[in-house]
Design goal:
Blueprint (H helix, E strand, L loop, with lengths): L5 E4 L8 H10 L5 H9 L1 H9 L8 H16 L5 H10 L9 H9 L3 E6 L3 H11 L7 E2 H4 L6 H11 L6 E5 L2 H9 L3 E4 L15 E2 L3 H4 L1
Helix pairs in contact: 1-2, 2-4, 4-5
Protein name: Haloacid dehalogenase type II
Family: Belongs to the HAD-like hydrolase superfamily. S-2-haloalkanoic acid dehalogenase family.
Keywords: Hydrolase
Amino acid sequence: MQLVKALIFDVFGTTVDWRGSMIRHCARFGLPEQAADLWRAQYQPQLETVRSGARPWVNLDVLHRIGLDQVLRELGSDLPNRYRETLVRAWHRLDPWPDVVAGLTALKETHIIAPCSNGHIAQSVNLAKYAKLPWDAILGAEIARAYKPDPRVYRASADALGLPYDEVCMVAAHNDDLAAARAVGLRTAFVPRPTEDTEPTSDWDIVAATFGELA
């Protein structure tokens, strides 16, 4: 780990509290707490349509809109289009976990830090501005035109930094994310989150309780 020059981070769940944020955003439009969970349940199935080749590459805003429309049908809610677009854009405004900004700021002193997210570049930039995430670069799905855990996402992120894979560490609260990163040669760090995986399932290079402890 002393050779690691860059850390790349999962965002939804690891870096930001998507659930608490989306419950709040949904409530603005009279939607129950259940709506946020149902919408998140659409996430992997919609990503899989791209991963499987059933749908050509589209960014996460498009997939979030498809998922939202499905959830509203299930709930019997008929929101106007402008409200649906506002809710999709709410994924650009998610609150960071309390330890994140200080932890990233400390890590930035010694390492390159960047998201390796399934969010697209515009979403990641807007989220960084909103949540004050001090990234050095924006990496992840859009530069690879693929969605994690497709190995191309991790490779493209390391390649964009011009670093050997073993000098890049993937940080996530998802064991499957770390397993995919390890499979292509990245180092791994697990940070638990209450809405994601709470325990490591493998001997990751680092297990830390918070981003501050990781730093």
